[in-house]
Every structure is written in C-alpha cells, then in structure tokens.
Design goal:
With about 170 residues, the protein is mainly α. It has two domains: about 80 residues, no CATH class; about 45 residues, no CATH class. The protein has a two-stranded antiparallel sheet. A hairpin with a 2-residue loop joins β1 and β2. The longest helix is centred in the middle third of the chain and has 22 residues.
Amino acid sequence: MAASRRGLYEILVTEAVASGLRELDASLEASTGALRPAEAADRVALHLSRIVQRAIAGVPDAERVRVGVGLARRIVEQIEEVIVGAEVRPDAPVEPATVLRAIAGRQPDGRPETIPEPLIPLLDTTLRPRSRTFLLTSAASARLAAPGWGSAVGMSWGERTMRTRGT
C-alpha cells in the first residue's frame, strides 16, 4: 500500500489502500474523510488516469496502440451510458489511432509552412515545482504558457500569483 508511512495524504481510498489501513502498525492512526463533491471530478479522473496509464504501459508494444485506443473508446461509451447528458462520444479517439501534430498555414506559393517539432514532445513539457520557483522543462512550454505567464520561467510562486491577480 502506498499510504503506510506517517505523513499527509490526499489520495482516494481504494480497495488496496483500505486493506493496508486495516493493517497499520499500532503506532499509526489513519485520518480519512468523505470525498467532497467539488473534488470528485478531479480526484476520480486523476485516479483513473493513473490506472489506465499503468495498464496500457503493461501491454506489449505491438498491441499497445490498439488496446489503448480500444479501452479509451469503451470508457467513453461507459460514460455515455452512465452519466446522462455527458455528451462525450465526440471525444472518443478515432480508429486507427492518430495524433494531430500541427496545423500549418499556407505559404504564398500554396505549400504548407514548416513548423519544426520540439526536441521534447509537447506531452512531456510541464511546469514542475522546484523549491519555491517554478521552472519550465522546455522552451516549448514557455510558448504554450497561458496568457500573462509567458515570462513565468524562474518566477517565484508569489510573483506569479500577484501577476495573475493583476497586482
């Protein structure tokens, strides 16, 4: 179980976590609380995303794309069946699986412009906290930063917070 050491946790209690909590050392005591409605979407989505990622990563390379997209399509179907008005069917990935890499403009001669792909895939470029300063993992992230955050590289949390609040 991941939550067997002393400390603060904010994880969804799963069957495995509940089992581990029942077996805690007598010197430890767990504190749990109900999942709040305002947190439900984020917590459940994060939990499921980790499960899906781990499961798909465990599929052999030759089958990973087919199995992963098939699973994603089934999840979307389940959401449509369980949650009235979800209207998520358009978000199901197409088969065969494809990834949009760019939308290029046309040059005056009619050829599409060339947009160089970044050295680090955009999927892997995220803000990562390091001490009290947030560093971007690639230059591509700086270009993708939200409006007003374009110069957030190396900016402290307080500076960025004041900037986004307009102070």
